[in-house]
Design goal:
Blueprint (H helix, E strand, L loop, with lengths): L20 H27 L7 H59 L7 H10 L4 H21 L7 H6 L9 H17 L7 H17 L4
Amino acid sequence: MADDKKEESPAKPSLFAHPDPFVEIVWTILTILVILYLLNGFVAFFTSSTPYFSGGVAFSLKTYLVNLFWKIFAYLKYIMLVVSIGLAIWIVDLYKKVVALRKAEAALLYTAVAPKEVKNPTWERILKNSQSPNENDWRLAIIEADIMLGDILEKVGLMGETIGDKLKVVEKGDFKTVDNAWEAHKIRNQIAHEGGGFIINQHETKRVIELYQTVFEEFKII
């Protein structure tokens, strides 16, 4: 069965339509200049006292054309009004296109240069373990956080064999969260030395992890 619905024909583009609004602006300006040039030549022809033809026939022809021109000129103001309105609508449309284009370019630029959120996978794993219902995961979270602390102290070039040795030579002016690092490291040592004999709950685990977090935030690794 044939489809009764007729396909809608695509809208016809305007005479100077172009994907780039700036090209449309150039065509608009050129069109206006050409129109003005033709009007100027048209007026100059009929207002000039110099004959463009010779003989009586030429004079009669020019007289006829002059009379025709003045008849047309009587309606010229209405024609120019319509043309002006059309050009005004055209300019507004071009302005909207330029604004939309600028917004699209700005969005692309922002997307290109916007910094992506950087996540530390080790820290994400530590947080996950600290929220686990398993006590062994709590201990593992603190131990891994202490390893991250050791890596930081190693990178800043502190002298010493152990984390404790490195923390002893820290100047508080250079390491504002050194007290938090000390407190968290002591809990880690208790876990490592006492093993299962050291009792820890989830609340204490989260508190210790928050101590490590202040250190990592100071050094901007999370």
